[in-house]
Amino acid sequence: MGRKKQELWVRLMVLLANMGRCVYCDYSESEVIDHVIPLAANGADSWRNLVPACQACNLGKSDKGLLAWVAQLTYLENALDSAAWPHGPKGLTWMREKIDHAFDEVEARLGGVKAELDDEARTDWFFDRYWHLSKSDSVPLWRAYVGAKATEARTNGYPKPPPPPRMRITRTRLGQLLEPVPPDEAA
Which distant-in-sequence residues (6+ apart) come within 8 Å of 165 by Cβ? Predict the structure, then answer.
């Protein structure tokens, strides 16, 4: 089962979630999108299973489950403190608490990203403006362009775009094909 290349508006919507930061480490800028439940573990290949990630976290997580990866990272960060005497005084109970705390933090950020991606106004905002972009367009270039606009839209509550002006077809031979319909004219 291969990965499908997501539409560019979906990739932008996911990359700019969590204020444009990696959902796992929460300090690096998001560079790639990651499947929370890996495809190797029968995770869905849809935007509801995608989160923003930095390159290092995405490569480190690879196809591991979230709990296993967070436990591995936490253990590596705190191995000397938790080791048995004479290397560390804290032990396995302390390590278990550290892993639980780290997993709760990541899960809370994942919940925030899920809520952000499930927001219909936000999804509509990205779709209305960027649905026409090609899958092969440059993501970093568009991310830089859309980032400021998305931040402004977040503060304004993701407003809907104004409706297009009403137009009518004109029957001139070489002139204008469409002309605007005045607002006071009935349909």
Answer: 180, 181
The count of C-alpha atoms lying within 13 angstroms of the C-alpha of 61, restricted to the half-sphere facing its C-beta, is 27
Cα four-point dihedral sign 143, 148, 149, 154: positive
What is the Cα–Cα distance from 141 to 11, expressed in whole angstroms?
A: 12
Residue 39 near residue 2 (C-beta atoms within 8 A): no
Taking the C-alpha atoms of residue 109 and residue 37, their distance in angstroms, rounded to an integer, is 15
Cα separation, 92 vs 25, in Å, equals 24
Q: Give every CB contact of residue 51 below 8 A, 6+ residues apart in sequence.
A: 14, 17, 18, 23, 33, 34, 36, 110, 113
How much is the pTM? Answer: 0.78
The confidence score (pLDDT) of residue 152 equals 92
Predicted confidence (pLDDT) per residue in 74-109, tens digit:
888 877 666 655 455 667 777 888 889 999 999 999
